[in-house]
Design brief:
By secondary structure, the protein is an alpha/beta fold. The chain is built from 12 helices and 8 strands.
């Protein structure tokens, strides 16, 4: 249902930390023009922990209006509170989201049965498709393949963004879930190999900086051209790594600002990219063929 290079888009902000809605609309237009295959609004890269629900609704509404149905708009609605996640899902769907991305509940660390019931309750209430999001390095809880297989039978749960960085995990998920749950890589460095192994695409941080290159890479990999996919991916590996020299989205927001697309605004507790981190990101951008100031 959702495939290719789906950008986990940054949220532009002013120096004072306000959402820059004019820059947002221009950024959405740029991604459509550069070939991104979908947008994730208010995911981790969009600073979801500090973006209010009202801001998320407005970002989603404006993105849907600018996109006009040309590519899907996926809104991050997951929290560590099931009732609040249901509320966010309703509001973001009403704002125009084509689907929602729901992360595993962080900090309170539910059991596998708790995860099953959490996602089931959200999907039961949702009017739009649900994409599960597993990122244990951030949340402290791992959605195991057996639990994902149980959830795969739900008619509104359509995909899983798997961000363990483990290709063997993807193989296990494919074996258990089959065609009932499409897989999306949550890790740019292994995205090409994941797609060649059967994933449908990637929810990408790197696509914020090189959307056309990531679109081409995923398109080639989806066609099964392993040699060309690996050739294209090799040019981007340095950038994949450099965008995590500090916590995401600190480096990628700095990089997109160097493209002149957004300002340098970021919200506490995140801080601007350090001087030590700037040279590796700048060099990786140049190695990937990106002109930057």
């Amino acid at each position: 249902m959702y495939s290719g290079s789906i950008v986990a888009i940054v949220t532009p902000m002013t120096a004072s930390g306000d959402v820059d809605f004019a820059a947002w609309e221009a950024l959405v237009d740029w991604h459509v023009g550069e070939g991104s295959d979908g947008l994730v609004v208010c995911g981790t890269t969009g600073e979801s922990p500090t973006v209010t629900l009202a801001e998320a609704v407005e970002l989603t509404r404006r993105a849907a209006a600018r996109v006009g149905g040309r590519i899907p708009v996926i809104a991050g609605s997951g929290t560590n509170d099931t009732a609040r996640s249901i509320e966010r899902t309703r509001e973001l769907a009403a704002a125009g989201a084509d689907a929602v991305l729901v992360v595993t509940p962080y900090y309170n660390r539910p059991t596998q049965e708790g995860l099953f019931q959490h996602f089931s309750a959200i999907a039961d209430d949702s009017s739009v498709p649900v994409i599960l999001y597993n990122v244990p390095s951030r949340t402290g809880v791992d959605l195991l393949p057996q639990t994902a297989a149980r959830l795969a039978g739900h008619p509104r749960i359509v995909s899983l963004k798997e961000a363990t960085g483990n290709l063997a995990r993807l193989g296990e998920l494919q074996s258990l879930c089959g065609a009932d749950l499409e897989l999306l890589s949550g890790d740019d460095p292994i995205a090409a190999e994941a797609i060649l192994a059967g994933a449908r695409g990637v929810i990408s941080v790197t696509a914020n900086v090189v959307p056309r290159a990531m679109h081409e890479l995923t398109s080639v990999a989806l066609r099964g051209d392993a040699e060309r996919a690996r050739e294209l991916d090799a040019r981007l590996q340095g950038l994949h790594r450099a965008l995590f020299v500090e916590s995401n989205p600190i480096p990628v927001k700095w990089a997109v600002a160097r493209l002149g697309l957004i300002g340098d605004g970021i919200r506490l507790p995140l801080t601007p990219l350090s001087a030590a981190g700037q040279n590796p990101v700048r060099e990786a951008m140049r190695a990937a063929g990106v002109a930057c100031n």
